[in-house]
Every structure is written in C-alpha cells, then in structure tokens.
Amino acid sequence: MKHFKKAACAVAMTAVTAFGLTACVGGADATSDAGATTAGLPQAIKDSGKLRVGLSPDFPPMEFRDGDKLAGLDIELQQKLGEILGVQIEVVESPFDQLINSVQTARVDVVMSGISDTLERQKTVDFVDYFKSQGRLYTSGARAAEFTKATDICGKKLAVSGKTDYFEQVKNLSKSVCTDKGLPELSILPTDSGAAARLQIEQGRVDLAAQGAENLAYFGKTEPGKYAGVLDPLPAKPFGILMQKGDTQLANAIKDAFTKMKENGDYQKILDKWNLGYGAMDPEINGVK
C-alpha cells in the first residue's frame, strides 16, 4: 500500500487538469507513523489514503512557489496534518476565486489557502479556523511617518484587492474615520490581487494599500524597509480550512488533528518559523458568529 501511494503521487505531480495542477507534498501512511490514524475520517478519504487540498499559491508566506516547490505556513501545516491523520496530502492548485466552488463540487476535500471564515461563506461551506489573521494598512517605508493617526488616511488613495474582506473593511473605515466626521473620503481602488495593490504603491499611484499582516511579515524579511505597516490592525477574520457544508465528520477530524498539533508543539514552531506567532489560536469549527 505504501509503494502504491508513492506511485500515485508521482503520477499526480505530472497531472494537469482543467481545474489546476495536482501534487503530493506531504503526509504519512497510517502504517508508517505510530502516531497517525485515519480514525474519524470519512470512509472515502480512508479508502483513498489521501486528503485533496485546494490552494492558490500566490499568498506568501501562507502559500507560494519557491522555484518549482510549494512553500509557506499552510504547506507545512498541511504536511503535519497529513502525518497526524495518516493520509497523504494531495495539493490541487487553482485560481483563488475558484477555490470555494472546487470544494462544493467535490473536486477537492478541503481548501486551505488563507481564506477568511465569514458568516456569508458559512452559508455554503463549513470552516475549521486555525489562524488569527490581521489586516493592515501599509505604505512605502519612506512614507510611514505621514500616517500616525487614523484621520491621516482621509483624502488619500488606497489600493486593495477587491476579492478580499479587506475591501469592505477599508470602505467601513473611510466612513467611520472620515466621512462621518465631515472629512474627505478615503479613495479606494479595487485591484485584482494583493500584488497589484503593492504595484500601485511602488508606482506612486496610491498613498496606501491594505493587505494581510502575514504578507508584510514576509516582505519585511525578503525586502526590508520597502513597505511599512501603519495605524491599528483591521478587524480581520480568522483563516479557516473549508469543506462541504454539513461534513461534520471531516470537520471534527481536522479540528482534533490541529488540537494534537498544538499540544505537541509543532503548530507553534511552524508559526514562529514564519514570524507569524501572533496568529496562534485554538482550532474552532465555524468560529465566526
């Protein structure tokens, strides 16, 4: 069985489908790890010996491509998750805006790709929350001193991905901080991605951008001083692993696995490695109420 799974992984790594790229990146055979067990998993996952995880590898340091390899916090957490559950992790790559549909149509078992747990999303999928994300306003390192109080954003231009929760949050911020007080609104430019928002900063077309603090931690290491977070964090939602609505068996199995990962210390070690220790939390099913 173990050799069969390795062969299956080798085939999967070369597969290209209409949905995306597929690759086995970690996990463990239940027979090769004394601490691993498939108990509690749905029968279909037990029978296949793998957990199909959908992700979009364009969100460093959560998930990204380092050369031809996948890297990031989520990738390492997935590997530990596979070891605890006793299954192989099969990563299925997809554009971010197709991820939720991929789990609803059973092309993957779960999605783990820096997706926030929201009440709106809970109408169609369930979440196991595992990381306390923070949203941040930021600017270029050279302009950080211009933003020391909340009203400094009024009348300025800000770029933010229109596909993220931060888009609505900065709209609310503009209202509460600026227009409700008779000050000029924060002009908001929706972009296709966080990378596109950063480009607006680099080109001097906007004064600010909004993105996850996770990104800023990563760029603080790779490009020190280029960007600087300013003002207080946005009220971001926790990131969750999402699965089909009502799949309580899988949700409980994943929640229990993250509890074990937290108890044995691996969870905190991985967060600290990526400078994201602030996001540690107890796993919770549909934690946003």
Which class of secondary structure composition applies to the elements? alpha/beta
SSE ordering: HEHEEEEHEHEEEEHEHEHEEHHE
Annotation field: number of helices: 9
- Please tally the β strands and state the result: 15
Compute the gyration radius: what is it?
20 Å
Low-confidence runs of at least 5 consecutive residues: 1-20, 26-34
| Reported CATH architecture of the largest domain | 3-Layer(aba) Sandwich
Query: Can you give the helix content as a percent range?
Result: 25-40%
Overview of the structural elements:
By secondary structure, the chain is α/β, with parallel strands linked by helices. It contains nine helices and 15 strands. A five-stranded mixed β-sheet has the order 11-10-12-9-13, sandwiched between helices. Strands 1-6-2-7 form a four-stranded mixed β-sheet. Strands 3-4-5 form a three-stranded antiparallel β-sheet. β4 (about 65) and β5 form a beta hairpin. α3 (about 75-85) runs antiparallel to α9 (about 265-275). It is elongated, with a radius of gyration of 20 Å. Mean pLDDT is about 90; it is low at about 1-20 and about 25-35.
